């Protein structure tokens, strides 16, 4: 130890390479005269196979079940038109079977499989089946933007301009200033609140059987209306059960409403 300290002082006093030079000299002294070299390794060594990994701690069977459940949910969402007894009225891609009023036709577009209303007043009518609908169950998936107003008409007829005067409007309105909310039969049987929410898809289900109308929102019955015996059509808006087709409403430029998976089942 004493000799190493003396040599350290010697190297450090010579130059700024003192420590480095001392290290080099000491290393030379420590290398054995017959060094043992490491044997060369194969370029492609054979290694035992790794055991199969279990991702995230889940077993394969659990992952398979989770994947199957997810696929089932997607299949149900994508096949709304194939519900037993129902017929699709909208293909999600074109306006085939639908005709807009002649006013403000650019209000209607198609996006992500939905008919989208965004613009000045304009209604779009289903014209794909010449046979009128009288007793039926109609289902429409709806998505509303904040403060939006729209509507789903039944027992109506094609009309070039204006608010449809024939049939009933089932209101679409979650937070628009009009107090008559989603599920109302406009100006016939009105609701002050609704289980629907802006920004979330929900199903608006309208059933007409004889003189009774039932409306469900998110599978909740929100309205049951029975037309009184002897009811007469109104002078401007008929609002009288009869027969006809369906229509969707584009209400105003500030409203954005999406309608998709439009399907119907005749009950007569």
List keywords for this structure.
Jelly Rolls; 8-stranded antiparallel sheet; 268 residues; 5-stranded antiparallel sheet; 3 helices; alpha+beta
Taken together, the total number of domains comes to 2
- Structural class given helices, strands, pairing? alpha+beta
CATH superfamily of the largest domain: Exo-inulinase, domain 1
Q: For the CA atoms, what is the radius of gyration?
A: 38 Å
Largest sheet: 8 strands, antiparallel
Using the 3D structure, state the CATH architecture of the largest domain: Sandwich
Spans with pLDDT under 50 lasting ≥5 residues?
Answer: 11-39
Count of DSSP H/I helices = 3
- Indicate the overall shape: globular
Global mean pLDDT: 83
- CATH class term of the largest domain: Mainly Beta
Helix fraction bin: 10-25%
Question: What's the total count of β strands?
Answer: 13
Strand content: 25-35%
Task: Describe the structure in brief.
By secondary structure, the protein is an alpha+beta fold.
What would your notes on this structure say?
The protein has 2 domains: 1-30, no CATH class; 85-266, Sandwich (Jelly Rolls). β10 and β11 (220-226) form a beta hairpin. The protein is α+β, with helices and mostly antiparallel strands. The protein is globular and about 60 Å long. The strands form 2 sheets. Strands 1, 3, 4, 6, 9, 10, 11 and 13 form an 8-stranded antiparallel beta sheet that branches. Helices cover 17% and strands 29% of the residues. The protein is built from 3 helices and 13 strands, in the order αααβββββββββββββ. The protein has helices at 2-14, 18-30, 60-78; strands spanning 87-88, 98-100, 108-111, 114-117, 122-126, 136-144, 149-156, 168-173, 202-209, 212-217, 220-226, 245-250, 257-266.
């Amino acid at each position: 130890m004493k000799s190493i300290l003396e040599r350290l002082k010697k190297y450090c006093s010579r130059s700024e390479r003192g420590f480095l030079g001392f290290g080099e000299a000491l290393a030379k002294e420590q290398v054995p005269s017959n060094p043992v070299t490491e044997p060369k390794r194969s370029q492609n060594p054979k290694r035992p196979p790794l055991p199969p990994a279990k991702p995230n701690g889940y077993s394969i069977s659990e992952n398979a079940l989770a994947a199957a459940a997810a696929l089932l949910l997607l299949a149900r969402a994508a096949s709304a038109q194939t519900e037993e007894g129902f017929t699709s009225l909208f293909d999600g891609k074109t306006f085939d079977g639908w005709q807009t009023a002649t006013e403000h036709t650019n209000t209607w577009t198609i996006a992500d499989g939905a008919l989208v209303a965004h613009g000045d007043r304009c209604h779009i009518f289903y014209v794909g089946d010449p046979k009128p609908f009288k007793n039926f169950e109609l289902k429409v998936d709806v998505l509303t933007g904040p403060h939006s107003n729209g509507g789903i008409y039944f027992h109506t007829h094609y009309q070039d301009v204006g608010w449809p005067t024939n049939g009933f409007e089932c209101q679409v309105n979650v937070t628009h200033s009009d107090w008559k909310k989603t599920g109302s039969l406009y100006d016939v049987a009105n609701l002050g609140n609704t289980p629907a929410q802006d920004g979330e898809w929900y199903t608006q289900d309208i059933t007409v059987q004889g003189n009774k109308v039932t409306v469900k929102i998110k599978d909740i019955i929100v309205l049951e209306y029975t037309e009184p015996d002897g009811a007469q059509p109104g002078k401007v808006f008929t609002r009288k059960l009869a027969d006809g087709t369906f229509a969707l409403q584009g209400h105003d430029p500030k409203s954005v409403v999406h309608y998709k998976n439009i399907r119907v089942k005749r009950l007569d």
